[in-house]
Prior knowledge:
Blueprint: H1 19-32, E1 54-57, E2 60-66, H2 69-76, H3 81-85, H4 92-99, H5 105-119, H6 124-127
Antiparallel strand pairs: 1-2
Helix pairs in contact: 1-2, 4-5
Amino acid sequence: xxxxxxxxxxxxxPKPVTDDDLKNALKSVALExxxxxxxxxxxxxxxxxxxxxxxxARGDEGMLACGCMVGVALHSLxxxxxxxxxWEACSASAVLMEFFPNASDEVRAAYTTAQIRQDRGLPxxxxxxxxxx
Length: 133
């Protein structure tokens, strides 16, 4: 798929999104906080190192905020937090297939690799290193 071809966002938004938009969103998030090491709030699932696309406030699951790098990037492209929350425990590739079904295999692979690296405790700037973004 060429960079000029647009991707569909499904029912979320009529705004066309390209592979370049997806790449730039992930890269921007990582470069804005390159030394940030993601950890989930302890109250969301005590005793695990699970990553979340969306965080909720302590004691209030209605107060939502972006969570991991992929969640921040996709929300910046218009995916509502409530919609992302429904995809917890799913891979970045699966989430992209839902909200941006025409995203290239290359973009899905980059998001998946970045997510895996983040979940292993690498800083966001390192998590995207070497990816075609």
